[in-house]
Amino acid sequence: MPQSGFYAKVRHGLPAVIARWLDLGRGDADRLALILAETARVAKLGEPDATPSGTTLQHWACPGHGDDVPLWAGRTAVFLLVQMPARPVPADDAEACAWAYCWLRNREPATFEAAAEALPDHLREPLDAALKAAWTDRQGLRLV
After folding, report:
1. How many whole angstroms separate alpha carbon 47 and alpha carbon 67?
2. Is residue 20 within 8 Å of residue 101, measured between CB atoms?
3. Is 52:70 a contact under the CB 8 Å cutoff?
């Protein structure tokens, strides 16, 4: 059975991922929403029905709005954040769970070791426990 609490942490942490993208991305919220949607399409991380507005992106970034954040947006934000020279890291456990979940969904590694080794060095320690939990959750879902 998948870890019931893990996915709840992911949903709780997704607004922080979007907020981090808004904070570190270059441009106003409308431009960052466009970049997020276009990157999702090009990198095949999801198919947004429409490009969200900057106002929508700011709504998604508000704590407590995790259920409103589409997974493509979280996956794409993590995809972009991991590549940033600023080397951002998650601020808390829920955000780390969201990062780890999105990391696994983006890469689809064959083994936990491959997933951990592919992480940039600056994320290995901050995502260690969350990546293990994400892997356990992912493996549990395969059994359903």
Report:
1. 18
2. no
3. no
Angle at which helices 93-107 and 4-24 pack, to 10 degrees? 90
Q: What is the mean pLDDT of residues 62-80?
A: 97
A 10 A CB-CB count for 82 gives 18
The stretch 32-37 carries a mean pLDDT of 98
Buried b / exposed e along 11-22 (16+ C-beta atoms within 10 A): bbbbbbbbbbbb
Taking 80 as the threshold, does the pLDDT of residue 126 lie above it?
A: yes
What confidence score (pLDDT) does residue 1 get?
37
Environment class of residue 71 by beta-carbon count within 10 Å: exposed (0-12), middle (13-18) or buried (19+)?
middle
Nearest residue to 133 (alpha-carbon basis) of 107, 101, 105: 101
4-24 vs 128-142: helix crossing angle, rounded to 10 = 130
- CA 3/CA 133 separation, integer angstroms: 8
Prediction pTM value: 0.92
